[in-house]
Design goal:
Layout: H1 3-49, H2 65-74, E1 81-85, H3 91-98, E2 102-107, H4 110-122, E3 129-133, E4 146-150, H5 153-166, E5 172-176, E6 187-189, E7 196-200, H6 201-226
Parallel strand pairs: 1-2, 1-4, 2-3, 4-5
Antiparallel strand pairs: 5-7, 6-7
Length: about 230
């Protein structure tokens, strides 16, 4: 083989090696870029999709526009204070404030609370809204005349007991996505995932009183018969 051929072969080998090295470097850069992007995305979105209520796993699922409208529709004749239990990004609280309610949201996720406060400020209703980082099981709802909850089945029975004990007879409860297990709704609006169930406290409180009285009478009757 001539000297020229040897030099040409060496150049070709060096070229292939150099090209392979460049490809490796590009691959590493792309991998690092994608990895960094995924980490950044998780850092931003993670706090928003993390469980919002620690005792029961309740992930943040934003209310649809139809759900918000249905909630406002069943509260048209109402006034006073409103609390959204597990307020998420604050859309129910903000929408209710626009309708004249003094609105409050309780949410465990601090990122969502800060974001809700920012949204309320941007939309000009921050003076009529309040957002708190708090566990719903550690808060009393006795002062609120309207209660909204986007719950999950696992929490509804325990929340039913809590609200029944704390709310005034004039209060109204609006359940979204899932109804309460033993209460009979006074009204139902919407369909599918946009369904809302309306419960007036005077109804479920009077039902409880009647049930308790009946139970006591039956127990007294059984005691007399035993004697």
């Amino acid at each position: 083989m001539s000297g020229l051929g040897v030099e040409f072969e060496k150049s070709a080998v060096q070229g292939e090696t150099s090209g392979s090295s460049v490809k490796k470097r590009v691959g590493v850069i792309v991998t690092c870029a994608l990895g960094g992007s995924l980490v950044a995305l998780y850092a931003i979105s993670g706090p928003f999709i993390a469980p919002a209520l620690r005792k029961i796993c309740l992930p943040f699922v934003p209310a649809t526009n139809t759900q918000v409208n249905n909630v406002l529709r069943v509260l048209q004749s109402r006034s006073g204070t409103l609390v959204d239990i597990g307020s998420g990004d604050g859309r129910i609280v903000i929408a209710a404030a626009r309708e004249g309610f003094r609105s409050v949201g309780f949410e465990l996720n601090p990122w969502l609370v800060w974001y809700s406060r920012y949204k309320a400020w941007r939309q000009g209703v921050h003076r009529h809204t309040s957002f708190y980082i708090s566990d719903l099981w550690k808060v009393s709802f006795s002062q609120y005349s309207n209660v909204v909850i986007f719950g999950v089945p696992q929490m509804m029975e325990q929340l039913e007991t809590k609200l029944q004990r704390e709310l005034q007879s004039s209060a109204r409860v609006v359940a979204c996505r899932f109804p309460f297990p033993t209460w009979t709704p006074d009204h139902v609006t919407g369909e599918g995932i946009d369904t809302v169930w309306v419960y007036d406290a005077k109804t479920f409180k009077s039902h409880t009183t009647t049930t308790t009285t009946t139970t006591k009478l039956l127990n007294n009757s059984e005691d007399k018969n035993c004697r």
